[in-house]
Amino acid sequence: MLQAYDARMTGDEYVYILPEMDDRRTKDVSDMWKSNDGRDSDAFEAFKNALMLDNENERKNLFSTNFSESIVEKMDDWPFYCDAKCQDNPLGEAGRYAGHLADSVYLYGRALNRSLAQNSKNRNLAVGDGQALLKNAVGSFDGYSGHVIIGENGTRVPVFYILGLNSSSLLQSFARIDMTENSFVSVRTIFA
């Protein structure tokens, strides 16, 4: 973005769309213009004309931070009694995919509860019926890894967010795009 700024390509006639799908590259996109190069204000000006396409929304980072801290704290307690040294985790953060694992366990629990409710007389049959579990997994919920939608075939439906700076220069989600097999669903209008 600094190259665009230096080339004077950051006026109202320019819009940059930046795909940000790799959570290893940046944990918090809300300050991605900050660096040690002394040009934060130039980069910030350039980012005013940028939209980021991401698989996370701006609220998920805060939620994930709290979740990560909670996991690390609970590792010190029963039944693990494992501190940061034991975990070989000097940063004190949960693994990258801890939220996905938590959502998978939650999804399984939801599907299992629905299956048990449908076949309460024969619990063994309800627990062992994979087709019923798959059918009962279909749906959506707000999870630790973001908004989770499970389709009819049992796969997670991609959810993307369009993020940018609002009029107060704060990062905001302008649109959520839920993909389906044949189309997309625009959850929020960007411009009225």
Automatic annotation (TrEMBL):
InterPro entries in the record: ANF_lig-bd_rcpt, Peripla_BP_I
* Major localization class: membrane
GO CC terms: membrane
Where it sits in the cell: the answer is: Membrane
Instruction: Give the keywords, sorted.
Output: Membrane, Transmembrane, Transmembrane helix
In this protein, which residues make up the domain named Receptor ligand binding region? 1-167
Annotated signal peptide: none
Gene3D superfamilies for this protein: 3.40.50.2300
Listed name of the protein: Receptor ligand binding region domain-containing protein
According to its UniProt entry, this protein's organism is Steinernema carpocapsae
